[in-house]
Amino acid sequence: MLFLCCGLVPAFAGHIAGGELSYSFGGITNGSYQYAVTLKLYRLCNADKAFNNSVVVAIFNKSDNSRVSNHTVARTKTETISLTNPNPCITNPPAVCYQVAYYRNWVTRF
């Protein structure tokens, strides 16, 4: 006979709810291409874990998918955004609150 015992405990997730990765061309200096890399990570406000102080962004070669380099990108700021003016057509709108971490650094490629 097989018995399954489990306790019921509330579960809370502190994982990322979404994100955006972008880069912009900053120019050429001494034959090197400069790019500003920005990563924005979103998570719910009631998360119990802090954002990392830095993340690693990898650059890949498009022609063969090989990894060219890794770059550590530091967190530059964190902010909280929330829905303060919900559409009046919505009855009992939910509370919407996200923490956003911004990671930004310059990357140089030859």
Indicate the topology.
Layout: E1 18-29, E2 32-44, E3 54-60, E4 67-82, E5 97-109
Antiparallel strand pairs: 1-2, 2-5, 3-4, 4-5
Model description:
This protein is mainly β and 110 residues long. 0% of the residues lie in helices and 55% in strands. It contains no helices and five strands. Strands 1-2-5-4-3 form a five-stranded antiparallel sheet, with no helix packed on it.
Uncertain stretches: 1-12
| Principal-axis shape | elongated
Task: Please report the total strand number as a whole number.
Answer: 5
Oligomer kind: single chain
* SS-based class: mainly beta
Q: Which key features would you list for this structure?
A:
single chain, 110 residues, mainly beta, 5-stranded antiparallel beta sheet, 55% strand
Short description:
The chain contains no helices and five strands. It has 110 residues and is an all-beta fold. Residues 1-12 have low confidence and may be disordered.
